[in-house]
Every structure is written in C-alpha cells, then in structure tokens.
Amino acid sequence: MTTTVKEKNKKKTGKAFLQVGQEEATPGTSKISVSDLNLFYGEKQALFGVSLDIEEKKVTSLIGPSGCGKSTFLRTLNRMNDLIDGVKIAGDIVIDGENIYASNDVIKLRTRVGMVFQKPNLFPMSIFDNVAYGPRMQGIKNKKELNKIVEESLRGAAIWEEVKDRLKTSALGLSGGQQQRVCIARAIAMKPDVILMDEPTSALDPISTLKVEELITKMKKEYTIVIVTHNMQQAARISDKTAFFLNGEVVEYDETNKIFSTPRDQRTEDYVTGRFG
Amino acid sequence: MRKMKDNLLHGLLWFSAILSVAVLVMIVGYIFYKGAHLISFEFIFGDYSPTGGGGIWPMIVTTIYTIVISLIIATPIGILAAVYLQEYAKQGRLVKVIRFATESLTGIPSIIYGLFGAVFFVTTLKLGMSILAASLTLAIIVLPVIIRTTEESLKTVPPTYREGSLALGTTRLQTLYKVILPSAMPGILSGIILSIGRIVGESAAIFLTAGTVAAMPEGLLSSARTLTVHSFLVTQESGDIELAAAVGIVLIVIILAINLIATYISKKLNKADY
C-alpha cells in the first residue's frame, strides 16, 4: 500500500515501546497502533492500508478534505462503524497491547475509548442525568459516588461553574457550546484513556470554539485525544501530531508544525496552503 | 390578477376549514339535540331494563373492559414487534414483507376480523361469545395501528441519541430502554389513543364475537354488549334514534376523557421542561 518507509519504521518502534513500557504513561508512548487498516462499505473501499501510531497523552489531529476517510478512521478506533450494515474491516488496531478487533467486547472498548460527536447530542434529560448516564449504565447506583463523578467530570470539562446551579434542569436548554462541553463531561465520566472527537467545534460559534480548544489543550494531560477537524488553524493550534488523509490514505503523518511548515509531500503542502479542499 | 388569485385561494382554504368544522359541529350538535334530554344519573349508572327506561351502565362497563383488555394484549406485542422491525431486524426482504402485511391489515374491513374471531376464538378455541373473544379480535384489529405508529415514532428518534448512548459503552438493550423508547413515548402514546378510538368505535366485530347480552358481565367469559353495539341495536330494533343519540353522547364523553388522560400522561412522561 502507500505507507511510506518512515511510517513503517515508526510502527515497529511503536510496537517495541508497547512491549517495553506498557505500564508507563509518559507522553510520547504509543497508545494506539494501527497497521495496514483497510475498510470497506460494501463494495466500496474507504480506507486503504492506513498505518499510524497515536501517542499517549497527546493531541493527534486528522485533517483532509471531505470524504477522505478521516471520520471513518476515527470511528474504527471505538468500533462505531460496527453499527453500519455491510462494513468490513481488515488490519489491526492495537490499543494498550490489545487488538480491539480480536475481542468482541465492544462495551469494554467503548468505556475506555470515549467519543464526542460533531453536533452536541445530549439526551433529553437533565444535565446531571446526562453526565451520570454512562456510570449508571455501568451499574453505579450510589448517590454520593454519582454526585462526585458528575462534579468531577463537569469540572474536567470546564463547565461546572456555569451549570452547577441548574444540574436538574434540561440539558437541552444550554447553548450549543455549553452542550458540547457537557458532552465532553459525559465522555470523561466514563474515565476513558482515549477520547475521540469528530469535528467537535464545527457546529459552534468562535467563542465556544475557543473554549473547547482551551479545554482540549488542558485535557491532554490526562487523556490521549484524537480529533478530526476541518479547520486547519485548529489543528495547528491544538495538536501535537497531525495526519493528512486523502482518498482513504494517510499521505503524511508527522509533528504538527512540520506538517504545516515543511511538509514532505506536495499534496500535503497544497492542502495546508489552501490550494484545494 | 395575482392578488385576486391569492384572495381566491385564501377563500377556498377558509371554506374548506369551516366546512369540515361545521360538519363536525352539526353531527355532535344533532346528537346532543336528540339525546341530551335522556341523559341522567339513572340513565348512566342504572341497570338495563328490556322494557325501557333503564340505564346503560352494563354497556359502559363492557366497553371499558374491551378497551383495557385488548390494549393489554395488543400494546406490548405491538411495541415489541415495532422495536424488532425498526431496531433489530436486518432491513431485508422479510422485514419488507412484514411491513407490507401490517399495512394491508389496517385496510381490511373489521367485519372480516369479526368473522375470523367468531370462527377462531369463539368456536375453535371454545371461548364462546365473550368479552375475551371480542378483546382478542380487537387486539388483532389495533395491532397494526400500534406497530405502525410505534415504528414511525422510533424513526423520529435522532440517530445521534443512539450513537451517543452506544459510544458510552452501553448495550443495545440499555440504549433502547433508557434513551430510545422514552424519546419515542409521545408517538407511541398517540398510537394507543388512536387504537382506543378504533376499539370504542368498533361494532361489527364485537357484535360477532361478544354477542348482545344486555346485562352486567360476570367475567371475561360472559357475553356482553358494548355501547356501540347497543346504539346499533336500539336503532335497529325499536327505531329509537333518541336513545341511540344519548348513547352516542356517552361514547363521545368517554373518548374525550380518555384522550385528555392520555395527553396528560404523555406530558408527564415528557416532564414538560425537557
């Protein structure tokens, strides 16, 4: 396939890291290792031999024009594509040394790999119930414990101060930006290691976008974050590493500043300088 | 010229709206005009007397019986079937066939159901002419209504709810029970209200399966007479339009009351401020 030599090498080092230092959670360790991932929607192939290593406690952004497969790729990481009929997947995705497609425990996978969607998708319940939803479904019933989880999660998503007096009111009464941060809190409440974000700010105004971006930068101290974004400035602002997708392939994957200042591939340069997309 | 066309259309819309309301008002008005003077405490709560002057309490009780029992049978089955079709089944040929069948079932005249009920429930299953046989028949009549409306309301639940819930590591059953069904509840309830209308308004199928015994039913296996059947019979036997109209008034009030209660419950379930 089209993986470059450099990426192949990186894959190897990534695996070596995993074997040696699996327990350590230092930034830079490979958290997710994807090798030769192919994905088909029925007959149509959407991902071609994608291989990349996502590093622990860093923000990795996936950029590329619409329909390039970046969202599809993101959704393979918590197996959300399983919900679509006729999806076939070949290749390996290893998270913390475990091949996530080898086991059938999607439930456990999704508690470890949280997700925030393009549009805020809070349930028609109170703010409290939304954040407590995941833990409750895991069987946590203790009121004190739930209160603690909800407060911590909302604080973690930098929205506690804004909603602490209205936890029992409908979550749908919040503004779009607030809703999206509650969505992040809802994901945090599961205490995941990895958080996937699928264009989390595309439905938000500039100020809310800024708040969510600040939040993401803060969150990488604790979580490994993979974010799909259409907004290249955003990728440049918040991410440590950037992967450029085109037509279902990873064209280039490197440190974010390299991708934006000295890309190796002509297509990457054309895209980041705004010549297409 | 364009202005004139606009006015014309406007007038036509008004006319249609007023016409449909007027017809409704006329019918209800006529029924009240004919029957209102017969309504009394004795008429509603009194026992039936074949010689005239009696009440219709046994028929009211029978009507409520048939509503409750047929809904107890049809609602869970209908909701489960709709959930299966919409959420679990692979959208292929089989599902298409089932959908087509349920849609066709809604169009079959109720007398056919009545005949089926009379042959199957009354005779083959030896339930006799009874409230139970009638309720089972009615359950079959309203089943497609409940399935269709439930399916439609499941379709309106945003797929993002489903994704959001599953992404939090919940099982499909938890997602269904905690997120999808509650959001679909108003639609499901309106399906149930429609079904109640269908049950209360039914006469032919009940006539054939529950019989016409005008006495307080002793149990589910006794033959009995519902309000609609009574209304039909008094017109048929004695030509007493006024009595039939009085029965009609009671029917209208019952349906109105049930609708109000159902809307109230639906609002409660929505907790209003969500």
Automatic annotation (TrEMBL), chain B:
UniProt subcellular location: Cell membrane
CDD domains per the UniProt record, alphabetical: TM_PBP2 (cd06261)
Membrane topology designation: Multi-pass membrane protein
Residue ranges constituting the ABC transmembrane type-1 domain according to the UniProt record: 60-262
Recorded superkingdom: Bacteria
Membrane-spanning parts: 12-33, 56-85, 97-121, 127-147, 179-200, 243-265
Alphabetical keyword list: Cell membrane, Membrane, Transmembrane, Transmembrane helix, Transport
Primary location: membrane
Pfam assignment, any one: BPD_transp_1
NCBIfam families for the chain: 3a0107s02c
Family, as annotated: Belongs to the binding-protein-dependent transport system permease family. CysTW subfamily.
PANTHER family xref list: PHOSPHATE TRANSPORT SYSTEM PERMEASE PROTEIN PSTA-RELATED
Name of the protein in its database record: Phosphate transport system permease protein PstA
Annotated source species: Niallia hominis
Classification of source organism: Bacteria, Bacillati, Bacillota, Bacilli, Bacillales
Gene: pstA
